[in-house]
Amino acid sequence: MAIDAIEQIKSFTSADYVGALRRVEPTENQLEMLRVHLSAPDHTLTARHLARAVGFAKWNAANLHYGKLAGKLCNELNVAPTTNLSILVEFFKASGSEYELCLRPSVIEALRELGIGGQGTWSFQEEWGIEKPLVEGTSFTVQVSAFERNPVARQKCVAHYGTSCSVCGFNFGATYGGSAEDYIHVHHLKPLASIGEEYVIDPIKDLRPVCANCHAVIHLRQPPHSIEEMKNMLRDNENAQLYDRNPAA
Ligand SMILES: [Zn+2]
Ligand SMILES: [Zn+2]
To answer: How far is the CA of 133 from the centre of ligand 1 (A)?
Structure first.
């Protein structure tokens, strides 16, 4: 890559990156990668660790998402697109080891200003408009949990169904009060195999609020238990327990 492109990148301020990031509107996968990268020690990770941390089986899949984001940022900031990931990171290599990717200082500052990785994540999402379709990137390698963590989809699901568990009715706020108010997991119903390339989440059809216990049991099996199955399991087991206590009934 040309030296002058790197010099140009080094001259970018956090404000440059804030503007560019707002305009390119990163996907949830890309945001998740930025979050993981930001929270890594010294904001530095090997590509393999980054891929694993965001739930991609292979670095290729992660690279595709990060690379697309880098390409768009290059475009916004008028840098030759061949600079690829250098717009976001500096590469280091200790002898004999893998390359490490270190987020650039202005990128780190910009991510913090935008609230990525911190509590401001939701308002950042909101600014981008919650009414547009929630397109999730590509393929079978994306873990279901990425859909379940999508803050916009989550919010819509909870606004529709409330914060009580769809299986057992448990409500964190009612039980624990205080900081547990409004806490709930969101489960994604669609089996991975049915998810195509440009999958659009329908937060009402595809997501359900569930408590942490039910969520854990749902995922004990592959494919996961359906909500109906879970309700039946609960009911059957309750009946069995009743019978155990009172066999004459
Ligand atoms: Zn539950
Ligand atoms: Zn789930």
So the answer is: 29
